[in-house]
Design goal:
The chain is an alpha/beta fold and 231 residues long. Helices cover 34% and strands 17% of the residues. Strands 2-1-3-4-8-9 form a six-stranded parallel sheet, sandwiched between helices. The chain has a three-stranded antiparallel sheet with strand order 5-6-7. α7 links the parallel β8 and β9. The mean pLDDT is 93. GO terms for molecular function: hydrolase activity.
């Protein structure tokens, strides 16, 4: 049994570094295309299907089964595609403040208007580039200065096309148990939007009193939730 960890937008697999030592089972943190081990990919060419294929490749390379699949933030629109690719390998789905817009909509249409303005200002030539100032405001409200710096140092450019691509949520119709970790101090994927995602998925819900990057600001708390789900 293993955890497979999928990062959100503007980060790579290293966003899970603080969490992994607290997990009670093997953990595979995947770099999606354009980040970390897959950095040599043109950001303008990346699709959600490419992201799901990256997860499948890494899981199959290690022949992982009975997986607890954990997705943070923007991973909420990659995960259903993963569920369609390797459903027999996945035992439980955990969504950490995950973006789950209405099926066949675009992520950019669903986010908070104030956050959307910051996002749109951060797009140029097909690349989504978060400034340190904007990221600090949205992501680091529950962190001290040192932790904030550590988060901002891990920011990565991302594909703007992913924000505009029509999402396919059909994988969530599969009969695989799921839990939504609701982050009560999240200033990025705000309360109203988390509740919309919860209403769409009808998962079990667990509250954590953290901001958006719980795996960094409160790794022991998030690990406790994940370890309990893993069993």
């Amino acid at each position: 049994m293993a955890f497979v960890l999928i990062h959100g937008a503007s980060f790579g697999a290293n966003c899970w570094d603080e969490l992994i030592p607290h997990l009670g089972a093997e953990a595979l943190a995947v770099d999606l295309p354009g980040r970390g081990s897959r950095a040599g990919v043109d950001l303008g060419s990346i699709t959600l299907a490419d992201c799901a294929d990256a997860v499948r490749e890494d899981v199959e390379a290690k022949d992982l089964r009975d997986v607890v699949l954990v997705g943070h933030s923007f991973a909420g629109v990659t995960m259903p595609r993963v569920l369609d690719l390797i459903p027999d390998r996945i035992r439980h789905v955990v969504l950490v403040s995950a973006v789950v817009p209405a099926d066949r909509s675009r992520v950019l249409d669903q986010i908070d208007p104030e956050v959307r303005g910051l996002v749109e200002q951060s797009i140029a030539d097909g690349v989504y580039h978060q400034t340190r100032e904007g990221a600090a405001a949205m992501l680091c409200n529950d962190m001290d200065e040192a932790t904030t710096t550590s988060v901002l140092d891990r920011l990565a450019d991302d594909s703007a096309a992913l924000l505009r691509e029509t999402v396919d949520l059909s994988g969530y119709r599969r009969d695989i148990p799921r839990t939504y970790v609701h982050l009560t101090r999240d200033q990025c994927y705000v309360e109203e939007l988390q509740q919309r995602s919860i209403a769409l998925l009808r998962p079990d819900v667990i509250d954590l009193d953290t901001g958006h990057m719980a795996m960094i600001s409160a790794p022991e708390k998030l690990a406790s939730v994940l370890n309990t789900i893993h069993g």
